[in-house]
Write a structure and sequence with these properties.
Structural class: mainly alpha
Number of strands: 3
Largest sheet: 3 strands, antiparallel
Helix content: 55-70%
Order of helices and strands: HHEEHEHH
Radius of gyration: 16 Å
Shape: globular
Distance between the termini: 19 Å
Length: 158
């Protein structure tokens, strides 16, 4: 089932399940996998919020530009910027998004966090990385904190 079609209760269950996985993976020392699951919490929250506000992305198909709510992981940083700012970013249009207003971070910092977490998710899911665990515990905790900040801010829109 797509996140875009979830009820709020289904989204909440998915979020809690992913957050539980983050805690369990982190405590087991699977730091990169914990970061990847934390990215998925951000992704689930952003895609639930973008569906609520009618955020769309422009796709080129057969020489024509079409707007849809079909987001790839590569567009999530722009989706995060749109949700934070309420303004268009790249190929992503804001729909009726009011923007977050006063979040813990601004839209530029939020995008940097989203981009870093997305790269970590790709390394975790597709690899290869130079080391099994490329981050120290402190570095991993910092990245997990970034995900928590993004989710906390994005949930203001829900």
């Amino acid at each position: 089932m797509s996140v875009l079609r979830l009820t709020f209760e289904q989204y909440e269950r998915q979020r809690r399940r992913l957050e539980k996985a983050v805690v369990e993976l982190r405590s087991a020392g699977s730091l990169l996998q914990a970061i990847a699951r934390a990215y998925y919490v951000v992704h689930a929250t952003a895609t639930y919020a973008d569906a609520k506000y009618g955020v769309t992305v422009a796709h080129w198909r057969h020489g024509e530009e079409n707007e849809s709510d079909d987001f790839t992981h590569n567009t999530i940083p722009d989706v995060v910027r749109v949700l934070y700012s309420g303004n268009k970013s790249g190929r992503v249009s804001p729909g009726s998004t009011p923007g977050i207003g006063s979040g813990r971070v601004g839209d530029a910092q939020a995008v940097r966090y989203a981009e870093s977490l997305q790269r970590d998710r790709k390394d975790a899911d597709y690899g290869p990385t130079e080391a099994l665990e490329p981050y120290t515990e402190e570095q991993a905790d910092q990245r997990l904190s970034w995900a928590n900040i993004l989710v906390e801010d994005l949930r203001k829109l829900l």
